[in-house]
Amino acid sequence: MSENLNAAEKKRLPLSHSGILKALAFILAVVMLFVLAASALGAVFMIGYEVYSTPKEEFLEELNWGEVFSDTQNIAWYVGCGEYQEAVDTVMTGSNIIAADIVCAGVQNWTWSHGDMAQAGHVYEYAWNYSVAEGGLAIPGYNSRAENTMLVRLLIAEKPEALDMYWLAYWISELAYGMMYAVYPVALLSLVFEILCLVFLMRAAGRRPQKPGITPSWASAIPSDLLTAALVGLEILLIALLVHLSYEEEFLLVFALPVAAAMAALLVAWLMSLALRIKLGTLWRNTLVFRLLKLCWRAVKAIWRGVKKLFGYFMNLRFFWQAGLVFGGIAILELFFILITGYTPDAEVLLWILEMIVLLAGLIYFCLMLRELRRCGKAVAEGDMSFEPDTRFMPRAFREHAEDLKGISQIVNKAVEQRMVSERMKTELITNVSHDLKTPLTSLINYSDFICRESCDNPNHREYADVLHRQSEKMKRLIDDLVEASKASSGNLDINLAPCAVDVLLAQAAAEYEQRLSEAGLTPVFAAPKQFVKIMADGRRLWRVVDNLMNNICKYALCGTRVYLSAESKGGEAVISFKNTSREQLNLSPEELMERFVRGDSSRGGEGSGLGLSIARSLTELQGGKMEIICDGDLFKVQLKFPCIE
After folding, report:
1. Do 589 and 550 contact (CB within 8 A), yes or no?
2. Distance set, CA 439 to CA 443, 472, 482 (Å)
3. Is the pTM for the entire model greater than 0.85?
4. Most Cβ neighbours (<10 Å): which of 63, 142, 433, 556?
5. Cα–Cα nearest to 291, from 386, 223, 194, 373
6. Strands of 120-131's sheet, edge to edge?
7. Average pLDDT of span 50-56
8. 433 with 427: CB under 8 angstroms?
9. How far is CA 220 from CA 137, 215, 284, in A?
């Protein structure tokens, strides 16, 4: 389909191809994921802090405890060291602390205030033991009447406005108690919307406006595991950033929401990329692990092929094992005599090891060269003249022998080419001569036929004309057989294969040759196949094969015997059989009988030309079949085998 669509085709595209809808669904998915995560964390938080069983004031005090601890410690420290005014102003200015005081031994001896007292709402106090002798360290204490105990009290605004931890604790408590029952339906609704958005985005992944089908993105070329690892690493960094910002309340309040939104957006984008890879079928194949495993598998296969090849080298070197056994026996005897008669066996054994390594390398080298020569000789023996001997590392004598083998192959190849040219010329000669003979022969046949039909007083003239006509017809059949035998052996016949019923063919042959067989004193016996047998054959060429075989039977079968015709299916092959008793003694092999101009009667007193069986075999092979002749005494049997079809 073309990428450029007309207006009607654009309208028929599904909504998943709309870029605006995908952008809106992506934003909504990020928002819903953020809401879902916040709702889940809020529910866990409220259950963990027992919001449902704790009054709001107690819950707020628990949230503020850490900040109260830090602020009272700082005030106790600075006041105890005499640096109370400037230091305390630095700690509490800009915070939600309205006032503070210190009570030592039951007497208020320090106070501080800032802001509008009408906004005061919550009082927190904490006792610290203070000792100048201990270096001005403030440690928690519980005896508020002791002289070295400071009871530090803080007055916090009822509704904090400054951005500090008191403000955060106040709004957390307000949000927790305001959403303590609404958080669950909010989580459920956000989950439903999140699922709907993700389903739409997964379906829309890889779909572009005005483009049908799935279109890869630039990110789909990145390996899946590498992309996943990068996403996990980035999410971990963002989580670490949130943890770090939790120590800086000013930055936490400003950056917490953008960082959380970025984490949600990355997760949704990764899910869309995952869906696109699944659609493209590259989720597993486009990974570094798959590529590494594929590379390792190729390396293992290459090593295995090398080992098999090396092992095959030595397994094919039959003489290598014989030479190796002789070499091993001599090496063991030599080592035995060294250990018995040597003056310094250690040094002599070391020299013996070096000697064996060199000799073994030489033995392997010569065995490999002999194997190459054996391969060349075997190629010549099998008629493969296209081999090339590898003489790069051969010594001179071996190289000359390999070149001689190559020269023999070239001579044989040239002889084969010359024979093929001769056969082709012979075929062309037969065709051309046959064509030239047919013209005058046709005239002889026609005019001899005219003479036979004319009335003549001399009977000898009619007899001469009959002989001339009969011999002319015989010569015409011989020329036709020569041409067809030449074409069949060279494969220059047009073969049109089609389904053919074997039983119908044999029944037709038995019916047409019934009279000729009867005149020759032969009784046909036709055994129809038990099941329907069909083959692929050229009906005209197959009938010529059957015609030649039946003619052969009529000419050479013993008078007064039976002729058997049968067909059956064996192992997926259709077997067509012609069986008769020969009139003459068969002194030739089946292969010789199928050669050209070979006849069963050595006297050549019959009418045959010796081409019938040769033509039948060539035509059978051209149709994908096989012809076999079986001679058992005077029994002559021909089998045609073709692959069966349904």
Report:
1. no
2. 7, 12, 16
3. no
4. 556
5. 223
6. 107-113, 97-104, 149-157, 120-131, 137-140
7. 81
8. no
9. 61, 10, 12
